[in-house]
Amino acid sequence: MLIIGIRDKQLLPVEREWIRSPQVSGVILFMRNFDSREQVAALIADIRAARTQPLLICVDQEGGPVQRFRAEFTRLPALARIGEICERDPRRALELSGEHAWLMASEMRAIDIDLSFAPVLDLAIRNVIVGERAFHADPKIVSQLGLEYVRNMRLAGMAATVKHFPGHGSVREDTHVEKAVDARSLGEIRNADMIPFVDAIDAGAEAVMMGHVAYPAVDALPAGYSPVWIRDILRGELGFRGAVFSDDISMAAAESAGGIGARIAAHRDAGCDIVLVCKPEIVPEALAACRGAGACDPDVIAALRGRVAPTWQSLADNPQRARAAARLTALETVSA
Question: Domain 2-335 - what CATH class?
Fold first, then answer.
């Protein structure tokens, strides 16, 4: 039911108790949890040892401005660099999108991360927090590059989580710090922002992360709280059968539902399978709100667990990694 954040680079005793709770489906790691590859791998092993049931270890390792683990990992370019190349050389851009996905996912799987919440399929139109995290403003380009990204994540043994449904790129506001409202009609959203998501779902994307944006022409509630968006459109109309994640409930735009317990209930009632509780200080309240509730369906967790994990040494010895790293890191040099 809950993916939780922890405070530091080692588990605290209270966090071991949190992880043992049947309402916890996994842990999400941030820069605050990272010092070195060796340290974070030991932390991941410690998290797994804290309970007997399977759980998910997650991160946002998108590249560009959102890359939690940097030292000793390939410095990945923002997806926007690949979108820029697509304008003049679509074939090369597809190759780079696939290499980006494979390299990111392979490095995460080599340290036993199950999920990096990727790719971003929002349109790069006007949102201040999406920005260069998105491939492009053209939904057809985003779809083409996104599908290649999803395919190559799978080749590296990682399920894809497309975000932030139904599209976060066309509003200005940053939902981390303020509410965001998109006044467009459903038809306008379908013909633009939703195109990459529809294509990725048709291609079998395993998970979708909802946004906290409200689309009042469709439903007054933000998308992650909206049965219209999740049950009627995502599940019903688009036929999505994978896992639905909320975005972080500590974000300002999530506050419209009320307190922590109300936010969790609203996401669950709308149809979210797993709720992100990224700030450790609100985890006790979130767990209290879930007391007595059932655990997440084990089949949902099993479908998202990482596969085909290489050792770090075998990955380091793989010439494919060296070639991909050289090509991708060169993108940032060119853009600079």
Answer: alpha beta
